[in-house]
Amino acid sequence: MNISPTSLFADIPKELPLELCQTLFLNPTVRIERILSQNHHSPEQGWYDQPQTEWVMLLQGQARLSFADADPVDVKAGDYLLIPAHCKHRVDWTSNTPMCIWLAIHIFEHESSDCPSVGA
Length: 120
Known about the structure:
- By secondary structure, the protein is mainly beta.
- The chain has no helices and 8 strands.
- The model is unreliable at about 110-120 (pLDDT under 50).
- A hairpin with a 2-residue loop joins strand 4 (about 60-65) and strand 5.
- A 5-stranded antiparallel β-sheet has the order 1-2-8-3-6, with no helix packed on it.
- It has strands at about 20-25, 30-35, 55-60, 60-65, 70-75, 80-85, 90-95, 100-105.
- It has one domain: Jelly Rolls (Sandwich).
């Protein structure tokens, strides 16, 4: 068995015309992603309404997230938050320089419609 590390900061394109989501690990209950965004935002209309809980950490850059039932949240490198399943949210903006590097962990579990106050 060969076990070796891989860096979340490796193989990052210099420019991103589109947000880049890369699955790092996947099983029936958990998906771990590296998300790269550079001056990106959610579509103008609608909200993300995911069936799974998402724990997300911003490793590099700055961004603002908005929520249908909570105040917007500005995040910077090192900040993390938990977005409950079906908590409607959107990305208002992400920094251009430096590019945003996110680590997202999606947890597939029972259905939940609770959206408590979200903070970083």
